[in-house]
Amino acid sequence: MLLIPCPHCGDRPEIEFRNCGEAGIVRPTAADDAAWTAFLYLRSNPRGLHAERWRHVHGCGRFFTLHRHTVSDRFESAP
Amino acid sequence: MSRLPTGGRIDRSRPLQFSFDGRQLEGFAGDTLASALLANGVTVVGRGTKYHRPRGILTAGPEEPNALVEIDRGGGRREPNTRATMQPLFDGLVARSQNRFPSLRFDAAALAGLAAPLLPAGFYYKTFLSPRGWHHLWEPVLRRLAGLGRAPDAPDPDRYANRYAHCDVLVVGAGPAGLAAALAAAETGERVILCDEQAEPGGWLLSDPQESIDGQPAWTWLDDAVATLRAHPRVRVLTSTTAFHYGLQNFLALAEILPEGSRLRERLWQIRAKRVVLATGAIERKLLFHGNDRPGAMFASAARTWLNRYAVLPGRRAVLAASHDSGWQSVFQLQDAGAEIAAIVDWRAAPPPPLLEEAARRGIEVLAGHGVTALPDGMLAMPRAADGTLIRNRTRTLFCDLVLMAGGWTPTVHLFSQSRGRLRWDDAADAFLPGEPAQNVVCIGACRGTDDLAACIAEGQAAGAGTSLPPRVQRAGGLAVRAAVTGADGRSFVDPQNDVTADDIRLAVREGFRSIEHVKRYTTTGMATDQGKIANMVGLAVVADTLERAIPEVGITTFRGPYTPVSFGTLAGRHRGVLFEPIRTPPLHDWAAAQGAVFEPVGLWQRARYFPRPGEDMQAAVARECRAVRGAAGIFDASTLGKIEVVGPDATTFLERIYVNALANLAPGRCRYALLLREDGCIADDGIIGRLAADRFHVTTTTGGAASVLHMMEDYLQTEWPDLRVWLTSTTEHWGVIAVQGPRSGEVIAPLVEGIDLAALPPMGVACCTVAGIGARLFSVGFTGERGFEINVPAGHAPAVWQAVLQAGAPHGITPYGTEAMHVLRAERGYIIVGQETDGTVTPDDVGLGRLIGKKKADFIGKRSLDRPDMRTTGRRQLVGLLPIDATVPEEGAQLVIAPGSATPLGHITSAYASPTLGRPIALGLLQSGRVRIGTSVFALGSTGTAAPVKVVSPMFTQPAGEGENG
Amino acid sequence: MAETIIETLPPGTRLALRAAPEPAARLSGAFGVVLPPPLLTAAHGGKRAALRLGPDDILLLAEEGAAASLLQALAAVPGAGPVSLTDISHGQIALRITGPQAGELLNEGCPLDLDPATFPPGACTRTLFGKAGIVLWRTGAAVFHVEVARSFAPYLRALLDEAAADLA
Amino acid sequence: MPQRFSFLSLARGALDGHRSWPEQWRSPDRPDADYDVVIVGGGGHGLATAYYLAAEFGVRRVAVVEKGWIGGGNTGRNTTIVRSNYLYPESAALYDHALKRWEHLSTALNYNVMFSPRGVLMLAHSVHDEQVFRRHICANRLAGIDNEWLTPAQAKAFCPPLTLAPDVRYPVTGAALQRRGGTARHDAVAWGFARAASARGVDIVQNCEVTGIDRDAGGAVTGVQTSKGPVRAPRIGVVAAGHTSVVMAMAGLRMPLESYPLQALVSEPVKPVFPCVAMSNAVHAYVSQSDKGELVIGAGTDQYISYSQAGSLQILTQTLEAICELFPTFRRLRMLRAWGGIVDVTPDRSPIIGGTPVPGLFVNCGWGTGGFKATPGSGHVFAATLARGEPHRLAEPFSLDRFSTGRLIDEAAASAVAH
Ligand SMILES: Cc1cc2nc3c(=O)[nH]c(=O)nc-3n(C[C@H](O)[C@H](O)[C@H](O)COP(=O)(O)OP(=O)(O)OC[C@H]3O[C@@H](n4cnc5c(N)ncnc54)[C@H](O)[C@@H]3O)c2cc1C
Ligand SMILES: NC(=O)c1ccc[n+]([C@@H]2O[C@H](COP(=O)([O-])OP(=O)(O)OC[C@H]3O[C@@H](n4cnc5c(N)ncnc54)[C@H](O)[C@@H]3O)[C@@H](O)[C@H]2O)c1
Ligand SMILES: Cc1cc2nc3c(=O)[nH]c(=O)nc-3n(C[C@H](O)[C@H](O)[C@H](O)COP(=O)(O)O)c2cc1C
Ligand SMILES: [Zn+2]
Prior knowledge:
The complex is a heterotetramer.
Chain B: E1 11-20, E2 23-29, H1 33-39, E3 46-47, E4 54-55, E5 68-72, E6 78-83, E7 93-96, H2 123-126, H3 131-145, E8 160-172, H4 176-187, E9 192-195, E10 212-213, E11 216-217, H5 218-231, E12 235-238, E13 241-246, E14 251-257, E15 266-278, E16 282-284, E17 297-299, H6 300-310, E18 317-322, H7 326-336, E19 340-346, H8 353-362, E20 366-368, E21 370-375, E22 378-383, E23 396-399, E24 402-406, E25 409-411, H9 414-418, E26 423-426, E27 431-434, E28 441-443, H10 453-465, H11 481-485, E29 493-495, E30 500-501, H12 502-510, H13 516-523, H14 536-547, H15 551-554, E31 566-567, H16 568-572, H17 589-594, E32 598-602, E33 605-610, H18 618-631, E34 634-637, E35 642-647, H19 651-658, E36 671-677, E37 683-693, E38 696-701, H20 706-720, E39 727-730, E40 735-741, H21 745-749, E41 753-754, E42 766-771, E43 774-779, E44 788-794, H22 798-809, E45 815-816, H23 819-829, H24 869-872, E46 877-884, E47 895-897, E48 907-915, E49 920-928, H25 930-933, E50 937-941, E51 947-953
Parallel strand pairs in B: 1-7, 8-9, 8-15, 9-12, 15-28, 17-24, 18-19, 18-24, 19-20, 34-45
Antiparallel strand pairs in B: 1-2, 3-4, 5-6, 5-7, 10-11, 13-14, 14-15, 16-25, 21-22, 22-23, 26-27, 29-30, 32-33, 34-40, 35-38, 35-39, 36-37, 37-38, 40-44, 41-42, 42-43, 43-44, 46-49, 46-51, 47-48, 47-50, 48-49, 50-51
Chain C: E1 5-8, E2 13-18, H1 21-26, H2 28-31, E3 42-45, E4 48-54, E5 57-62, H3 67-76, E6 84-87, E7 92-98, H4 102-106, E8 124-129, E9 132-140, E10 143-149, H5 153-167
Antiparallel strand pairs in C: 1-7, 2-5, 2-6, 3-4, 4-5, 7-10, 8-9, 9-10
Chain D: H1 7-15, E1 37-40, H2 44-55, E2 62-65, E3 81-82, H3 89-109, E4 120-124, H4 127-142, E5 148-150, H5 152-158, E6 174-178, E7 182-183, H6 186-199, E8 203-205, E9 210-215, E10 221-226, E11 229-232, E12 235-238, H7 244-249, E13 258-267, E14 277-280, E15 285-289, E16 295-301, H8 313-326, E17 334-345, E18 352-355, E19 361-365, H9 375-388, H10 402-405, H11 411-415
Parallel strand pairs in D: 1-2, 1-12, 2-8, 4-14, 12-19
Antiparallel strand pairs in D: 3-7, 4-6, 5-6, 9-10, 10-11, 13-16, 13-17, 14-15, 15-16, 18-19
The structure holds flavin-adenine dinucleotide, nicotinamide-adenine-dinucleotide, flavin mononucleotide and zinc ion.
């Protein structure tokens, strides 16, 4: 079980959180089919540092972004 | 009896009766089942899984592969595969051997041993090739032969608990190193947890009282250490507690087995530690020789444990088969305790002189540079040639009933490896040792390859204090394991439980299974219940030897949790029956239950499905309830609907972006049916949006969608549109919702409503008022196609208001109805249920709700996706009504086809009911190009294969009475 | 070891206040407690308490029956700016757990470190107990106040009762 | 051709102490310089693709390059459930194509893959489950695939450890049963395909990681870079499961995939007690008993993407809660080992099979939590696709471009069934 650093509540156990997928995916306003498909479905899914969103659902309720290495599963500071 | 008259840590004042395979035996408090069996001279305890050869107790610890027994406490408390070495003896314990038929002494399946030449590693892959031959003939036979004990056949009545804990230092292993670490950590004032898998702390010290620490006898030091720790307010000592899982960020899980007779059987500890100290010790290695699996062959260290800790002499005449110094001491102690020593057979040509001198002094014959092979009643010793094979023409016969094996030590690095720390091969230690850690963890003592007691203590003190460790100290040595297996007899057992021999491993390598992972899987080495604690290093050495590679080049298989097996019950904890998951009930549940309602689960909720009267089945009850609603008035508990209060100056903007509907023009005091899409354009949820004030909305969601809709809204609010000044508050549980529906609903509630002019409340209106004296939000909406109201009152007042409405409605024939009637009523009107008419692939247009979309809106969730080619294509499945021609209710899920023989599905029936209003069955379905097919017929193909014709009609079977507009 | 007592508290008033610190502060007078308390702490005075559960998320607790008047009073505060106040009094139920082993009992299902050094009296947060979300507020060295959604209360209570029986 | 496997050959082996068995498949230390087709990934799907290319489509110069040991990916980590009762005709056809091959795979490969059609039981616990399952049954029936409805009592008779006690949290209200479904021995599938492919000339190169994809000026693939040097080939088939995004990124492609850890566990072995496969989506658990006697239990995925082949404890505890709830007699059994795999999940939980915007680059991925059952079918249609350069009829609906057109095959949304 991960220990997740909530920017508001500090380190808290993973079961209080919900992972909300890759961060930084901009919702396009006027998009062609390709751009819209990319927004909907294409993900970097990296073997390495991953910017991802979490929500502290059973805590402060806030969404925030963290960087985690997907091999070590360790949280790291933003690149 | 081989119990010694004195000594050991057993309590001779507390004799305990137990039975094994029906034999009544006696042991003492402090015994394990294994020590008590040995004390009673029981040597055969189990059978190997493949050849069913008899097996004895090999070890004194959790790594035991042979002495697995069934423990039966009666009823559902019978369990298989319990390690006799880890089972504390208790009075009345009933144990049985396993995997033998008809008895342990005579096992018919041992005939498999005769067929051994036909059963090499992986034999089953090479034969039984025809599908019928395998599955029908051979598989059942092989299955019956495999497996160990019997699964229980009654539900387990015992209780299991869970505990989360935090500490500064978690010390795993209460041997000398771990105890020293815990003592040192306690001195710093930190929060310390010390756990050990054994029932008693002490680790190897319990087996070695001759040692001394700080000038004190080992057991005196031990008693003091344990007493100090137990008395310390910041230290928790957990015995019979195995650390079995090492997760990320120093999260460890421990399984505690509570003493026999406790209220709880086991407890799961989930611990987050700032630092972890692993003092998990080391496990002895076996040697490979023919007969190394026979009863009476055991680890030299185990013999010492039997002798010192349990005062049991495990045999009368012993042979030591050693490639390592550490076994010699065991033999000397056995001799002191009265055993005869037939000989010490050491693989090495030149064991250390001090050992040779001591043996000579004791008159023990030493056969250096020799190996052994089995005789029916002893061992045959022979010189080992340079290639490791035995030189058969110079033999020495050694009669014995005990063969001690000492092949060196494997540090218990399982948890360290699970923590994702790197292991590194160390030639001097002849083992993989902990290398670079991935977390805040240190390994000390035998787990680090240190075998000197003083050094173990020193390492513990450093680790406990958080200072850097002194260098590793290793005193004993031996022949490298790779050299020790060279030339080993092919029939030697590497993995005694899975009956894997040296030849099996060599065969696997020959057949191209070169990766150690392939060898493991092809031969099943290390896959037995000890998870390779016995077999892995030796098996690895055989692979390395066969491939002529160094051990670290071959690598090791992955250490996985649990460290030792953990019962399902411990992991499931208290989450069973009603505690498995919360059962949520709405505020009127008790009333419904008292009425004899039949309930249905919807997510975590229990909802009243119908209210049968005496003699009524579901259909009759539902028909009556429906007729009441259509004819007069019905009352329904709608409290489970999700409710969200949306408040703030930008609330309208926000909701316009979330829902497909135009909402800017929704006046305060009015409400609207609204659809919510996912970004892919498919319907996610629906509900009513009521505007209470310019900046305040009361939004409802489906029962199942409550949490996810709120989460989705928060996501957009916080991530996409953080500039909007809006707040979302769940009010699902605050409001009890009483739906009163039917032509007379207005008359029913009129006398109860105060504060507004009810007559002036338009359909799709919302007002704050009081109902039966309780502050309420009154919605004039219906999901039935009738004039209707939904009265929202604070949940605690809902039962009283419900009663008041019932009373007021009695003269009008008000009838409670459940979810089933609700479903029928809405279907008659063609209203969809999200999750039934929709399944995550359905657009608003598909269900005929395209008109809800605010045409002038620049954006809303999912808008852009509706423009994708396949969302606009013709031939999508569309919601239609279906009228069965033969007047039977079709099956929900039935497939729609153009003609009975057609194999092309055109859609399916989403809902089907007997409609009391229409007096005939009706159905809703999604049908390819459904709207243009209205007026035609298609066929509904059910699960039994019968195709029935259905007429395609508009989904609106009945026209709304009032303007109780849903869509 | 003294017993651990689990009591269901009588009904009370609960308001969900969503507001940034600035506007929240202006409501202090009308509510009678200094708002907002520091994050993850509770402030209380008399029968009223404010639990700051998130940056803009404050749970106001007050005596039973005060919802309507409080809502009115708070709405009437001049210049309070945009805030959200919602009555959720009936949506939650409160329990009090008292006793030297109260923390251990809570750790049967709550994954947080409840050592008084890390979770002292006055600390509060949303968290989990088993499969129920709760609001946990330590009101004394050996006293915890727990808020749970109405429909989760029977589950929470049953789980606590069973665990408490095993602790005893 | 290797020595044929049979009872007789085994008996002959016994005579010389099994000293003359040859390698089951050739293991060249490094790949040749060029091939007609290079398959990236030596899991069951990759090996099956190579086998069918050689055995049925006449493409002989084929290499399978595997970064570790063959079958060490999800093929060696799955709970081996085989069934074909999927909802959409496209899926059902594809999985049934596989199931029909399972039935004869042991003889076709001359390797006992221990396919055991013991029946797959899917438990319903609510009206909604029942509706979903009945919809499946009707759809399957129409597609000619067996799937039938059982009452609770019938389900119990088929699966005796199942509890019908009314006081469980989710009482069983019925079940869907596919009798032709069952299990197979995961490792044997990889080895059997490898042996049969090798016998037909396919090179299987282990410990050989693809590190780059070479393309010509026109963007078409020309080969791959590997940890054992470059390999030329005009067609590349990427069958890398959890690592697909990583490999495709080498060709500049972003995929509609996320890789999650999925866990499974086994109990200690016990005597036969569980005669079928049972799964429940409501409580999320699935279980069968292996030939060695362990209960093989599938758990869920973690919520975050990861390439670590390890998952969290809470996933296991949730699973075992469910298992104990459905089978309360199993509570005293013990978990022996738990492990994780990396599953490649698409937005619609259906696989992607076919070409890509890069000429010559083909992909077979997205099988997520449920592709073992498809192994022979997936290999077969992918081989056809690679050999002909255009999608096999059954693969066509599973093209990559469905994500832009919106023509998804949303098995997940339709039923929430994972395996
Ligand atoms: C715990 C678990 C339970 C499951 N249960 C079931 C089930 O019951 N039923 C079912 O049908 N399915 C199940 N599945 C899914 C199933 O295992 C997979 O869908 C299937 O095995 C995928 O096979 P594959 O050959 O595509 O992938 P894999 O076997 O993973 O093979 C991919 C190979 O590609 C290799 N590779 C990756 N990158 C490179 C590179 N750069 N260069 C060279 N090689 C590379 C990998 O090492 C790997 O060997 C389960 C999966 C898991 C993890
Ligand atoms: N070559 C060697 O390494 C070797 C050989 C024999 C004896 N010794 C002696 O053994 C002693 C070593 O002391 P030590 O403290 O390092 O080891 P130890 O063997 O005395 O103690 C290890 C303890 O860890 C416990 N343990 C292991 N895994 C566990 C787990 N997962 N969960 C809970 N408990 C677990 C065991 O039950 C055991 O009590 C010294 O006296 C040394 O001389 C060393
Ligand atoms: C169907 C199946 C059955 C298994 N049975 C056993 C078993 O009986 N004993 C065992 O130790 N491991 C068993 N395993 C697990 C493997 O040992 C191993 O954990 C798994 O292949 C993943 O590899 P890894 O742990 O080396 O990463 C089994 C795996 C599968 C897929
Ligand atoms: Zn937080």
